[in-house]
Amino acid sequence: MRAVAVGQAELKLFWRNRTALFNSLLMPLLLVPVLIAVDASGVPLVIGLVGFALLMAVYYNLVTTFVARREELVLKRLRVGELTDPEILVGAALPSVVIALGQMVLYCLVVAVVTGVDLPSRPWFLLLGVLGGVAIFVLLAAASSAFTRTVEMAQITSLPILMACLFGSGMMFPLSNLPDILAKILQYLPLTPVLQLLNAAWADGPVIKPLTVMAVWIVLGTYAVQKWFRWDPRR
């Protein structure tokens, strides 16, 4: 409940942030023509929009949020109270996560109506993919904030993960179109196992390896946050 209280306060700040609103609410809509241009329809369009929501609404927004609250001494003040470190981080992440989940549901419904895509035959993989993706990118955002001095610098420090996931995870084009060696390497990007699990909700496909890779990323992300996350301003 204490984390929810932090999240409610963070939500008020979120609605006042025009950049965060644009990244969360409008950027995925701008991706639709791009996905359509590369022959993404139905299930691929749904998967692409879910992946993009994870990258922008969760990862990028949270990098800027963690940095902003750190530099404003908000994290430091919260930490001297009764809140635990996980409660602070979860509370700060809550608005972005809730908005991203709402986006995913809305976009899936719109695509389903427009394209007539069927419901997933194995919805549990859809749920696992979304929840695992949220966990991974919340942790990566917290870890990335440690190397981000200012909110403005978030555009640079988040770029490697954003670009690698956007163009190398299979969201824009199938990995099968790439050379085998490169495709095998790109399967270990943080977004790739998420998209593979989402695809497995509609079609037969590998699930053990994506689940394993996703679990490894969660463990690595947790370790990175524990080791490098900064609570004090970088001045």
Task: Describe the structure in your own words.
With 235 residues, the protein is mainly α. Helix content is 74%, strand content 0%. It has eleven helices and no strands. It has helices at residues 2-16, 18-37, 43-71, 74-79, 85-115, 123-145, 154-157, 159-168, 180-186, 192-200, 208-228. Helix 2 (18-37) packs antiparallel against helix 3 (43-71), helix 3 runs antiparallel to helix 5 and helix 10 runs antiparallel to helix 11 (208-228). The longest helix has 31 residues, at 85-115. The model has no long low-confidence stretch (mean pLDDT 84).
Distance between the termini: 33 Å
Poorly predicted runs are: none
The arrangement of helices and strands along the chain is HHHHHHHHHHH
What would you call the structural class?
Answer: mainly alpha
In DSSP terms, counting alpha (H) and pi (I) runs of 4 or more, how many helices?
11
Biggest sheet architecture: none
Write down the overall mean pLDDT: 84
Short description:
With 235 residues, the protein is mainly alpha-helical. 74% of the residues lie in helices and 0% in strands.
What is the element layout, followed by pairings?
Layout: H1 2-16, H2 18-37, H3 43-71, H4 74-79, H5 85-115, H6 123-145, H7 154-157, H8 159-168, H9 180-186, H10 192-200, H11 208-228
Helix pairs in contact: 1-5, 2-3, 3-5, 3-6, 3-10, 5-6, 6-10, 6-11, 10-11
What are the key terms here?
235 residues, 0% strand, mainly alpha, single chain, globular
